[in-house]
């Protein structure tokens, strides 16, 4: 049996979930909570497999309750079941430890399937929740894969070929002083200490062709 706690501050929602979950032969509702504090207390007491967690509740919201339950019961799965689909709610819920995120308009049979997916170690997210997480993931990536100017990249390209400052200056038709300034800027922007580290960084991050190519 999959032991489930329902946490929602709306009585009608709890009743509806309870009625449906009882129709599933492998589900057992072992507790109901009307706020975040109660959800934490019940979860600690009965140690459920799954908590269906509302997001906005009195005393403590679903995110706070999720964080606390996961702290003491790391193997309990939290399924956020809410009406909110924006990133300001989705991302904090997942970061707090929610294993899944679904909207309350989910079809009953799909909800049953989602609960079973949780027990298999999957992380079922509604399409809108997945979209918001994907956006957040993209924004977390560095906006400047290559922080160098075009001229600094030219200097770095020559540097990776093992050329001296004099040779780089000759190739790019600039003074050695200018090359030294560019190299200093490159070291600072790439957070490296010497020419070897700069060359390795350039190859690893695709900032220029590896030494000996092209």
From TrEMBL:
Chain intervals with Basic and acidic residues compositional bias: 132-143
One term of GO molecular function: DNA binding
SUPFAM superfamilies: C-terminal effector domain of the bipartite response regulators (SSF46894), CheY-like (SSF52172)
InterPro entries documented for this protein: CheY-like_superfamily, NreC/VraR/RcsB-like_REC, Sig_transdc_resp-reg_C-effctor, Sig_transdc_resp-reg_receiver, Tscrpt_reg_LuxR_C, WalR-like
Signal sequence bounds: none
Entry keyword set: DNA-binding, Phosphoprotein, Transcription, Transcription regulation
SMART domains the record matches: HTH_LUXR (SM00421), REC (SM00448)
Residue numbers bearing the 4-aspartylphosphate modification: 54
PROSITE patterns the UniProt entry points to: HTH_LUXR_1, HTH_LUXR_2, RESPONSE_REGULATORY
Protein name per its UniProtKB record: DNA-binding response regulator
């Amino acid at each position: 049996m999959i032991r489930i706690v329902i946490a929602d501050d709306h009585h009608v929602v709890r009743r509806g979930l309870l009625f449906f979950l009882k129709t599933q032969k492998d589900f057992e509702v072992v507790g109901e909570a009307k706020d975040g504090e109660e959800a934490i207390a019940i979860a600690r007491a009965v140690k459920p497999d799954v908590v269906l967690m509302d997001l906005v509740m009195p005393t403590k919201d679903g995110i706070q309750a999720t964080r606390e339950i996961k702290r003491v019961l790391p193997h309990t799965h939290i399924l956020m079941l809410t009406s909110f689909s924006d990133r300001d709610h989705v991302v904090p819920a997942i970061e707090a430890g929610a294993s899944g995120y679904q909207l309350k308009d989910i079809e009953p049979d799909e909800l049953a399937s989602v609960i079973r997916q949780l027990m298999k170690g999957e992380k079922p997210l509604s399409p809108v929740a997945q979209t918001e997480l994907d956006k957040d993931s993209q924004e977390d990536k560095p906006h400047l894969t290559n922080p160098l100017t075009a001229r600094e990249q030219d200097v770095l390209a020559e540097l990776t070929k093992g050329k001296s400052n004099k040779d780089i200056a000759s190739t790019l038709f600039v003074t050695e002083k200018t090359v030294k300034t560019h190299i200093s800027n490159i070291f600072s922007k790439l957070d490296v200490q010497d020419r070897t580290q700069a060359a390795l960084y350039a190859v690893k991050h695709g900032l220029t062709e590896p030494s000996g190519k092209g």
